[in-house]
Amino acid sequence: MMDRPTYFHDPFRSPPPRRSWRWWQIVPLSLGAIILLAGLAAGGALWHFSKDLPALDQLGTYQPSLVTQVYSSDQQLIGQFFIERRILTPVADIPEQLRRAVIAVEDVRFFEHPGLDYIGMLRAAWTNVRRGGKVEGASTITQQLARSLFLSSERTFDRKVRELILAYKMELVLTKEQILELYLNQIYFGQGAYGVASAAQTYFGKDLSALTIGESAFLAGLPKSPNHYSPFKAYDRAKKRQEHVLARMEEARFLTPAEREQAVAEILSFRRPGVEQAAPYFVEYIRQLLVAKYGEAMVYKGGLKVFTTLNMEMQKAAEAAFATGLRELDKRQGWRGPLRTVDATAPTPPVVAAVTDQALKAGDYREGVITKVAKDHYLVQIGTTVAKLAFDDMAWAKRRLTGFDTAKDFVINQNLKQVLKPGDVIEVMVKKLDRDFVQVQLEQTPLVEGGLITLEPDKGAIRAMVGGYDFARSEYNRAVQAHRQPGSAFKPIIYATAVSQGMSPASVILDAPVVYEQEQDEKTWKPENYGRKIHGMVSLRDALAHSHNLATIRLLDKVGVKNVIEFAKTVGITSPLAADLSLGLGSSSVGLLELTSAYAVLLNQGSRAEPYAILSVKDNSGKVLEQAEPHALPVISKETAYLITNIMEDVIRKGTGLAAKVIGRPIAGKTGTTDEFINAWFIGGAPNLVTGVYVGFDDRRSLGETESGAHAALPIWINFMQVALKPLPVVAFTIPEGVTFVKVDPATGLLEGEEGQASTVELFTKGNEPTLATQRRLDPIDFYKLDQIPEGAL
Predict the structure, then answer these.
(1) pTM value?
(2) Cα dihedral angle (515, 519, 522, 524), rounded to 10 degrees?
(3) Are 669 and 647 in contact (CB under 8 A)?
(4) What is the rounded average pLDDT for all residues in the chain?
(5) What is the CB-side half-sphere exposure of residue 434 using CA atoms within 13 A?
């Protein structure tokens, strides 16, 4: 065997060369490293952006903030309470044409992508490059929903990444139909409207099912920029956006060319924003009731459906009658002068000879500027229109107020040419429109306030409510919240107490001066009748019908103040009442609603139904949370109620409410006027409707001389009831079995005496009829006749 050769290391010898990496070896390794690093970076980024994202497991049961809707008794929407005005609507109830319009313009591949539309991103990028700017976005419907539900609208890289992650995750936990339903209910459409149902009501005043293709396309175009595409700011721009949506629908084959052209030609009729709310005082009253019972969160976010007792036709009539009555009263008080004065020499807009109905219409209240004083009229500039104000249409302005007191602070200016001057800005009402001229009359907004309330006596349902002249000026609800002295309107309570104690309409009481000592301050009190007249012995019927103060105070003293207070509580008066004889003049303040409901007891045969305004309340799923069950309970006898109602019918037939005879059906009521004409009242009605009206300033000052209940409040009541009672059947007040009719001497209330004496038929409760007859009274003329008899003839 041969020995192996031995090799020795030579330190001076170069090592053999190493083999170098080939490119085909380096590239795969580099790519792998880059992919690994990119993956780690992406994972880190995903972890970073995902760590504080909201959980999506509750999306399936997500409940957005909803609108609580309030309806009148005839199902008209009269009010809404919300933080975001939204009406939750299942996707199945959203018209297909509206769904397609939204998908066509916002995300045409919605049903194909997993939340992120890579094809759409590339297409949008290419379009933007070609157009030289951002003209098309690539956010999918899912991305927009994620942004709306969970993220802010700031334009940052962080927010965009979070949006993409959320969109992808949402697609994993929700179906496409669920995402679309959430989107169509969540997204903002402008004008305070969230969701498609609210948008349809806001822009067109329609339910979703009534939308046309053109209207659907318009709504679908709004979410991109609701303010920019608002038809109330830029109609042409909004129309172009609608046409763009329709074009996209045609491209997506959701419409045929003919259908698109027809929709483009469609005229869009928008509901103007800022429409006055119906029955604002009543709606606010409902809001307060709901918040007290269900809390603010449920009322403003819960999407309640609230059905009320309000009758819209009656409400409109009430508001019109109330406004007219206050304006007439305000004119009687006097002219306060122009609203302001401007430079009459400044350039004015061009004048037009004719005015279209769209520009002005009869009954409009407008501001105008006096431009010229003519022989028997003024010329008034109203916008671009010149109108004529005849002196006859401003005659009331001769009485010019000079101060706070309407009864004393005034002057009379008989020369109407001196009342106004060029440059004066005034309020006018359009009286007449002709082709060649507009005729107006001078107006001024009343400062006086008041309230009106209407109830169904048998159920207590509130049918109409007016809490003041203008809700925008004052939200204080005088029909419910205000407490005022009712004056003589309180008297039926006193007379009803007397009847319940056994007296009758025929019972007599002295109406003569009386002086009472006031123990608390050792002073005397001397009440007086209106006009300081004295009537002597009068029946309770005449004393109430003609509102005699002195007789009423004597009656109150006789039946007892405490008894009257207890009776008042029985029929529904809850306000504290003065335990002294001033109660006979209505000195204790009460609310209009409570006193009107007390009258309802008298008109409803002694049975009281608690006033109510809400018929039912449902939650957003349709579950009934509240259901009214009105019922009346007898609180006083039918006989007492009928006898007082019958006397109050005389108030209309021959007493202080005589003007109400024009109603032409059985009605009963009572006027009320307080000292110095501070407040004026009238409360009354028929068996099926009772209404109370009061008029007065919010601060304590006179309405003016002679502005009594009959003069200031009754005209409002009449004008309203003529409309409100028209659709209701004519019903007479039911006479109870316990009431009898007896012929009596009207002077004494006793049975009629000898034949030939005056007598009248009067009503009594059975068992309380008079048993004694009136003795023949000697008249001084009898002694004269006796002297004329020849001697010996006796």
Answers:
(1) 0.82
(2) -10
(3) no
(4) 86
(5) 7
